[in-house]
């Protein structure tokens, strides 16, 4: 039997868009909202598709982190003081939607959970989000 679930989670993180012409070129932070729609087969023993806490744990990998393009010259400086989450390309909401979805699906595979992300929204403000669907 296939079933679909929804989970919403939040994280605080800063980023900057290296190749953007405007304010977002500067390092700044957001309260990000992550929404996931997942679909798959229930685990017969637990009757759960995916533990909501697993989804939250994946999202919280980004909580209170600095997220930068791996080619950003700030990486070298900031890495002296703290870990930096590196991305292939500018860390836009579009990129994060695909990346976090992929990480969540990888966690499902590692845990033998037959589930996949069917839609993900990453909100970087109350009025704009990126939506990823495979």
Automatic annotation (TrEMBL):
One of its GO terms (molecular function) is metal ion binding. InterPro entries: 6-PTP_synth/QueD, 6-PTP_synth/QueD_sf. Its cofactor is Zn(2+). The keyword Zinc-finger does not apply. SUPFAM superfamilies: Tetrahydrobiopterin biosynthesis enzymes-like. The keyword Transcription does not apply. Keywords: Lyase, Metal-binding, Zinc. Pfam families: PTPS (PF01242). This is 6-carboxytetrahydropterin synthase. It comes from Methanomicrobium antiquum.
């Amino acid at each position: 039997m296939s079933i679909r679930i929804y989970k919403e989670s939040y994280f605080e993180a800063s980023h900057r868009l290296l190749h953007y012409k405007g304010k977002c070129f500067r390092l700044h932070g957001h309260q990000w909202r992550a929404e996931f729609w997942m679909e798959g087969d229930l685990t017969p023993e637990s009757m759960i598709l995916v533990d909501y806490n697993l989804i939250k744990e994946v999202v919280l990998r980004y909580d209170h982190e600095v997220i930068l393009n791996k080619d950003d010259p700030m990486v070298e400086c900031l890495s002296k003081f703290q870990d930096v989450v590196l991305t292939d390309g500018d860390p836009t909401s579009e990129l994060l939607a695909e990346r976090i979805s992929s990480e969540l699906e990888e966690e499902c595979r590692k845990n033998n959970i037959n589930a996949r992300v069917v839609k993900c929204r990453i909100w970087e403000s109350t009025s704009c989000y990126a939506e990823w669907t495979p």
